[in-house]
Amino acid sequence: VQLQASGGGLVQPGGSLRLSCAASGRTVSDYVMAWFRQTPGKEREFVSVITGSGSRMYSSASLQDRFTISRDNAKNTVSLQLRSLSPEDTATYYCAAEREHSWIAAGLGTDSVNFHSWGQGTQVTVSS
Predict the structure, then answer these.
(1) CA distance 76 to 117
(2) pLDDT tens digit string along 37-87?
(3) Where are the beta strands (DSSP E) in 2-116?
(4) Taking a C-beta distance cutoff of 8 angstroms, is the pair 11, 124 a contact?
(5) Maximum distance among all alpha carbons in the chain?
């Protein structure tokens, strides 16, 4: 599956942003979709994942109150709503995908190594 993320940009502290990831090439509902983020010099950080049907979501405990993942299989997209942003949220945000049966077999892992399809990333900068 091919992924393309968009929606990043410059936002003031306290603001909101909605990221989107367009998927193509496969039956998207067969894949779990996830968001990660990364800052220079640091490992890629898990943000949130959503199952193929959209019925279950798992999010980083430190971000779940402000970030919400959703998907629209009819449009082959997954979104990440970011709220109450702070400068610490500045990062490149990546969408990722993995076949759901593989992800389940791997134990529902949220480490980046559990996902084999990646988008190119979209930059989010939070600054006044």
Answers:
(1) 15
(2) 999 999 999 999 999 999 999 999 999 999 999 999 999 999 999 999 999
(3) 2-6, 9-11, 17-24, 31-38, 45-50, 57-59, 67-72, 77-82, 91-99
(4) yes
(5) 44
**How far is 75 from 65, CA to CA, in rounded Å?**
26
**Residue 105 in contact with residue 69, Cβ under 8 Å?**
no
Separation between Cα atoms, residue 118 and residue 96, nearest integer Å:
4
Three-state DSSP at 119 gives coil
C-alpha–C-alpha distance, residues 112 and 126, integer Å: 24
The residue type at 80: L
Distance in angstroms (rounded) separating the CA atoms of residues 28 and 73: 7
Which two tokens mark 109? 């892992």
